[in-house]
Write a structure and sequence with these properties.
This protein is 67% helix and 0% strand. It has 185 residues and is mainly alpha-helical. The longest helix is centred in the last third of the chain and has 57 residues. InterPro entries: DUF2062 (IPR018639).
């Protein structure tokens, strides 16, 4: 089975999304563009890159960022949205720690700055905890501001290269199979 067929079976049909959702119906002129649903190798690879980059955006803005970038670059929207899902409550802190360390490295702050412990949520005072998380984030400052986009770009570039290579391998394998079936050299 080709990569394209595999993806087509798993992707939602754009008409179904746009017709069944009252929220999306006004956006139909923008979301109905064929390029947003295209399964060309470069568009899918760019969508993976955009999704991986957008996954590191703060809080609930990840899918919004991925959607806006997909609209801007006219790349596969569902793939871009799905690729943001690698961040979750279990992976978010390790990724931000990695981004913080990368930011320190890029800024030349080797041992001068230490990441403070993350505020613990007591289960009752959500508003105070949110302020503590904001203060925690602001304390990290420039290393985080530099590290998050740098890590996002690195993940996006890696995702792009991996998708391009895997897609090429799949196409070569299909050509070999076709050649074997036909019995030609």
């Amino acid at each position: 089975m080709s990569v394209k067929r595999w993806l087509l079976r798993r992707m939602p049909h754009p008409g179904a999304w746009l017709a069944n959702s009252a929220l999306l119906r006004p956006l139909a002129p923008y979301l109905g563009h064929a390029a947003l649903w295209s399964l060309q190798r470069r568009k899918v690879a760019l969508a993976v890159a955009v999704g991986l980059f957008s996954g590191l955006m703060p809080g609930p803005t990840q899918m919004l960022t991925a959607a806006l970038l997909a609209l801007l670059f006219r790349i596969n929207l569902p793939v871009a949205l799905a690729c943001t899902l690698y961040t979750n409550p279990l992976t978010y802190l390790p990724l931000y720690y990695l981004a913080f360390e990368l930011g320190k490295l890029l800024l030349g702050l080797n041992g001068e700055l230490v990441m403070p412990p993350f505020p613990v949520f007591d289960g009752e005072h959500l508003w105070q905890w949110q302020h503590a998380v904001l203060a925690w984030t602001m304390h990290m400052g420039w290393p985080l501001v530099v590290g998050v986009p740098a890590l996002g770009l690195a993940l996006g570039l890696g995702g792009y290269v991996i998708v391009m290579l895997l897609w090429q391998c799949a196409v070569l394998r299909q050509w070999r199979k076709r050649k074997e079936v036909r019995g030609s050299d």
